[in-house]
Amino acid sequence: MTCRVFDMRRKEVINIRNGMRLGCVNDVEIDTETANILSLVVYGRLRFFGLFGREEDQIIPWNKITVIGSDTILVDCDLPVLPEHRALFSHKRKETGKKSLY
Asked: CA–CA separation, 22 vs 99, rounded Å?
């Protein structure tokens, strides 16, 4: 299967460690000397409609990509959990009685 960078921008990135949707691919880092793709970049989410900037970009190394499908990219990496998502995980922990990974 071949995939163009233009097509990758339409794919959603999902972290298989916690099932979180990271967003869509916004950019690709390429080593110009070796012509290898180094990483995918997912821009951070906008804060209050972009008036307060955006959250940090998430850079996903190429070796952390497990599957590139027709509409999604599955990655296996430790990315920081955003505070609003951490609250969701702690809520689930209270309901199930299990310890949270975060």
From this structure: 23
- Please state the pTM of the whole predicted model: 0.68
CB distance 40 to 65 below 8 Å: yes
The dihedral sign for the CA sequence 91, 93, 99, 102: negative
Query: What does the pLDDT look like over 15-57, one tens digit per residue?
Result: 999 888 888 999 999 999 998 989 999 887 767 765 677 778 8
Structural domains of the chain sorted by starting position, each given as residue range(s) with its CATH number in brackets: 5-96 (2.30.30.240)
Q: How many CA atoms lie within 13 A of 5 on its CB side?
A: 11
Question: What gap in Å lies between CA 38 and CA 25, rounded to an integer?
Answer: 14
CA terminus-to-terminus distance, the chain: 36
Please write the tens of the pLDDT for every residue from 74-93. Answer: 999 886 655 554 454 454 44
Q: Which two tokens stand for residue 84?
A: 């609003």
